[in-house]
Each structure stands twice: as structure tokens, then as C-alpha cells.
Amino acid sequence: MNIAIFGGSFNPVHLDHITIANKLVDELNLDKLYIMPTFVAPHKRGDSVVSGADRLQMLKLAFENNDKIIVSNYELEKGGISYSYQTVEHIYNALKPTNLYFIVGSDMLDNFPTWKYPEKILSLATLVLVERRNGEFDDEKSIAVIKSKFNKTVKKVQVYGETISSTKIRVYKKLGLPLDDMLPFSVEKYLLQNDLYLEDSLYSYVKLNLPLKRRYHVAGVIILAVSLAKKLGVDTKKAEISALLHDIAKYENPDNVVGFIYDKDMPKDIIHQYLGEYIARTKLGVYDEEVLLAIKYHTTGRPNMTLLEKIIYVADIIEPSRKFAGVEPLREEVKKDFDRGFKICLEEIVEFLIEGGGEVYPLTLDALNYYKEN
Question: Global pTM?
């Protein structure tokens, strides 16, 4: 009997999850695929995860017509932090499968060696990587680490096409963007009827003050920034707030904002980063200095930036809706080596401005010179 465990927060379940599940059943010749929503995943603490009951119900709606796919409430009923080794042991002992597979995404594979008792998982199950095109992680490097550290191979199942994420759905919902072609109809209906993923005051401010096109850009920056923050060990909530607010002053007239003082000779495209920080601090009640700095220097950069500042700077340049010539190589550099990718982004922006006859702000030149030496 071939059994697989496909775990995650499923916050919420979406069409990519369904595509992946069906592909796993076919390619692994599965008798049963157990969809396992977590109670509290160790890496999800502090995230806006809706109740287990809601996530379970959405999963049941999504998979109600497939008898090979079982939505399990094991981790939800067990409660506490969801450690995968315990789930693997439970399924193995209960079903005694001939082959047991444990499904991971690129982000999970990347940090798998840091999990609690990863060797116990590998003693009972084979890791299966759901491989996506153009992700933010170096899958081959992660596979090599598993081989070197645990002497275990990783099986791959390729699922290519448009990439949907639960983060994208939550962000789009909060920013008032359409959820077209991301959710099964029954799940979208449940989500709307039960008022899930409602915006907070910061999202409401952005939704009211930025036009639709700019909100799509903001959503892209949030999604990429959160992904990079997870990979680099930065607080994902700070990354989300910084990205959400980075362009809040894009359409403000600085002369109409009481108390804001600025250099009248400052280029128009630069003013909004300083004004955005001012509005976030004085009007929106954002007092986290790391977040404020990330907003304040997201366009120019500056010498000696924090990692969060770098993340927002990079995400603003290469988020998915950006289509300028050369953006794909930049994305690849960032994926392979974030610090190197950041420096190349800085160099490319300066080169672009010079070639176009534009003005290079002195602070950007200071940043470029600093990072050439460091």
C-alpha cells in the first residue's frame, strides 16, 4: 500500500493544492493521500492562521469528490505544536504502508535539517519534493544537503504552471483584489460567507488610498518580501508591514501633509519614501524602527542597510509584476545568493538611471560605493 502525507497550514486551500494532490496520487501511484492541516506549525507562530475548524471545512469542500484523498484532523485534534515526526510515526504505525511518502515544498526542504528529529521522519518515509519552476529556493542545493547529512535521496514530482500561494490569496483579499482562478468556487464562497481574512487598519488605509494598479504592485512586494524573510530568518510580520506601507505616499502631495518638512530640490520619485515613513509613524501608529527604516529607504537604499531594508528594496525592484528587460537574471541572482543579488540590483538601478539620463540621488551613490567595498 502506497501512502503519502501532504501537510501544511492550508490557510486557505487553493487550486494549486488540488493540482498538486492529484499529480501526487497519479505519479506516486498512491492508494491514499492524507491531507494534514497543522494545528500550530512551528514556523507559523504569529501568522494570521484562521481556525482549524475553518481550514478543515475548506479542505473538505476542496477534496469532497476524490475518494483517494483523505482530509485528516489528526494534528488539529492532537493540538499543540505540530511536529511532523509525530505525524509520520502515527500514520506509519496505524497503516503499516509498503511505501510512505512525506510531501515537502522547496521552502520546507530548505530548512528540513533544522526540524525536530528529521532523522525519525527519514527512517519511516521518503521525502517527495513538489518542484515548481522559478521558485525562490535552490532545490538542488537542498537535495544535496539531505544526501550529505542523512544519506537519503529526495524524490521529485514536477508541478509547473501559474503559482498560487495562500499568502497571495490572503493579501489579495485584504487589499480588495479579485481572487479569480485561485480558489475552488465552494472554498471562495465559504471564505466570503464566513468573513475570513479581513483587513486590519493598515490594509484598510492602503486599500482606500492606493489605486488598483498600485495595489497589485504592493501585493507582489508583500508576497516576495515575506518569502524572502522566511528564507533569510527575518520577522515575516515586519516584512509584511514594511512591504504593505512602502508606497503609501506615492500619490500624496507632500505640501498638503501637515508637519512634513523636505528638501524642495529632492527628486519627485524620492520624496514618497520619506513621506511614507512620516505617515506611517505619525498617522498610522507604526513605531517599529526597523519597519520605518525599510519604508524610508526602499527607493534610494543607503549605506549599511538592515537585512529587512534590503529585502524591501529588492522586492520592490523584482516583484512578479515587474517586466523590465533584465529582471529575470536579477531574480535568478537573488534566488542563488541574496546578498550578491541585492548588490546587483543596486548596481543595475544606478546603471539604468545613468544610461537614461536620469538623476542618481546622492544617497544611492553612497550606498553603491559602500557595498562595493563591503
Answer: 0.90
